[in-house]
Write a structure and sequence with these properties.
- The complex is a heterodimer of chains A (169) and B (99).
- Chain A has 169 residues and is mainly α.
- Chain B has three helices and no strands.
- In chain B, 79% of the residues lie in helices and 0% in strands.
- In chain B, helix 2 packs antiparallel against helix 3.
- Chain B starts with a helix and ends in a 14-residue tail after the last helix.
- Chain B has a single domain, classed as Helix Hairpins, CATH 1.10.287.3510.
- Classes of the chains: A mainly alpha (169), B mainly alpha (99).
- Chains A and B meet through helix 1, helix 2, helix 3, helix 4 and helix 5 of A and helix 1, helix 2 and helix 3 of B.
Chain lengths: 169, 99
């Protein structure tokens, strides 16, 4: 597998910079839009890793559906967010230390994994992926559909206004 | 082949998600951080899929995307419900269960 270094560095910088925006921008709407940039960057990396179907699914599901939903939720609850609140300083410091420590632990643990490893000659093809989904992985596949139905019903039940019940407030 | 750096990138993405989760007071902001972490996991799966040529890894990356959709839907429904009941979207201010 050969990855063009310019494409790889471009996507990597895009992902890292916009991920930093996602977690630091005080304006939540802009944070959500930079999450879209992260998702597009990850989809680009999927294409570089020869997983084109996943890249399209990522753009379709994440950027098309989830991000739209998030933006709607931000707009619906915008009245409650009176001013863009920043996190308290002490919390930022300890959180930065904790996540940097986690990064060091992860990096040092997985360092040994990627030695002189033979890379698979051929990428996974879409027909084999589809075949696996309906043969070996049919149970998780069906389970995901069940989870989907449960999530949709649960979300509607949660978010729908309930006129019959008195509002607990 | 930048396999090592790809792995480091997915770690960095995950840790940024953890950072956002710890720092963000806004519930939707926390949800965005969860999406970052899920994406890091999916990126990891796709990387290993390419290295080993395993079909299952790609299938599970697909499952991650599907589960992330479910998670976002339910999470946002909870947040909208919360904004209606508790009149706040800040995780720190939700004290409905406090005695």
């Amino acid at each position: 597998m050969t990855i063009h270094p310019i494409a790889w560095w471009g996507f990597a910088t895009l992902i890292l910079v916009s991920a930093l925006w996602v977690v630091t921008l005080p304006n939540l709407f802009r944070a959500a839009l930079s999450l879209g940039l992260v998702l597009i960057g990850v989809a680009g990396l999927f294409i570089l890793l020869e997983a084109e179907f996943l890249a399209l699914a990522q753009i379709l599901v994440y950027v098309g559906a989830i991000l739209t939903l998030v933006v709607f939720a931000i707009m619906l609850t915008a009245k409650l967010q009176t001013a863009p609140v920043a996190a308290p300083r002490s919390r930022v410091g300890s959180a930065a230390i904790a996540s940097a420590g986690l990064f060091v632990v992860l990096a040092s643990t997985t360092r040994a994994l990627l030695g002189p490893m033979p890379v698979a000659a051929h990428a996974v093809t879409l027909p084999s992926l589809g075949q696996q989904l309906v043969t070996t992985l049919v149970l998780p596949f069906e389970l995901i559909s069940l989870v989907f139905v449960a999530a949709i019903v649960g979300a509607v039940a949660l978010a729908a206004p309930s006129p019959s019940r008195p509002r607990t407030r | 082949m930048p396999a090592q750096s790809l792995l480091l990138l997915s770690h960095a993405l995950f840790c940024l998600g953890v950072f956002g989760m710890l720092v963000r007071p806004h519930a939707i902001g926390m949800l965005l951080s969860i999406e970052l972490m899920l994406n890091a996991a999916a990126l990891n799966f796709v990387l290993w899929n390419r290295l080993f040529g395993h079909v299952q890894a790609q299938a599970f990356a697909l499952f991650i995307i599907a589960l992330a959709a479910c998670e976002a839907v339910v999470g946002l429904a909870i947040i909208i419900r919360l904004s209606r009941m508790a009149k706040t979207v800040f995780a720190d201010q939700v004290t409905l269960l406090k005695g």
